[in-house]
Amino acid sequence: MLRTICWFMNSMEQEAQELARGLRRRDPDLLDRLIEQYHYRLLRYLLVLTGSQETAEDLFQETWVRVLERGNQYSACWKFETWLFAIARNLTLDLLRRRQPLSLDSLLEPSEGEAPIQLNAPDETTPFETAAQGEEARRIASLLHRLPPAYREVLVLRFQEDLDLNEIAAIVGTPLSTVKSRLYRGLDALRRYLEGRPS
Amino acid sequence: MKEDLHERAQKLIDAWHVEGLAADDRAWLESHLETCPVCAERAQATERALSSLRITTARVSAPLLARTQQRVRLRAHELRGRQARMRALWAACALSWLLGVLTAPLMWWAFQWLSQRTEMPKAVWLVAFPLLWTIPAAVVGAALAWRRAHAPSENGYTEGRV
Fold this sequence. Notes:
The structure holds 2 protein chains of 2 kinds. By secondary structure, chain A is an all-alpha fold. Chain A has 10 helices and no strands. Residues 111-124 of chain A have low confidence and may be disordered. Chain B is built from 5 helices and no strands. The A-B interface holds A 26, 28, 31-32, 35-36, 39-40, 43-44, 47, 57, 60-62, 64-66, 68-70, 73, 83, 86-87, 90-91, 94, 128, 131-134, 136-137, 140-141, 143-144, 155-156, 158-160, 165, 180, 183-184, 187-188, 190-191, 194-195 and B 14, 17-19, 45-46, 48-50, 52-60, 64-65, 67-69, 71-73, 75-76, 79-80, 154-155, 157, 159, 161-162.
């Protein structure tokens, strides 16, 4: 059993190192494979962050170009998705900073009960919802977009992407305690929204 | 007292999902949930909320994927070209430095000879000699810095973060 675990860990480490080498070489075939592998998770994360299909798709492309350009900064001690999400998040913040500097604060430091970032008109169905499959999924997507963005983001990273708390802290760039408190508050808010008592 | 138990149970329900529970806390919570319908309902509501998060999906269109892959390939090609140019530049710099070092004694002798012929004060040519090396490097450095400051940032993003 222990031998199997060791073998598994070694093979994962080797894989990460190979990935780091490939990224340093800017190997386009490797990039193609990574895009195939992570496209779904990355776009879902960007949709949650931005609430706009168009913006998310633009950032999706920018993120992969940035992965190519900054490949030499990737270290095998990180999980690739943690690094990928951190890049996507930074690009999103840069974009939001240019578009609507006031709303940016809500992603960096949320306050209780504030409105989420809406890059599209608030009364129209968001593309995230449209993309969501089925009526229930659409309802959930809509509820999710009413949560403050900072809560929404950590909830998605924790419960959709199954990242651990340290990885989330690395992506969001905040202390672990802040991540935890956002998760507790976000979970509470989501539960209340689902029960129809959003205040 | 009963309130405290509920409060503890509710905190543990959230903690279970957010950061996991120690075995003792988990055992206590499970036994509490078996006997307390209010907390059991809250546990179920939490479970429903999290399951609902997991059913949300996004659709990535094939053209978007193809566009992205193509853009990345083009950029990779561009960067490889730039890298080759930079390599050539560095090779030229290294060669010029090497030649500079190799010809330094000759230049020293030339400066000495010239100063004797023109009766130049020794201090002047002693200052001029190191300037021969530093001025070209300073000019190239300034040109590179100017180029860096005036070149458009990559994709319009100017920050040094990843």
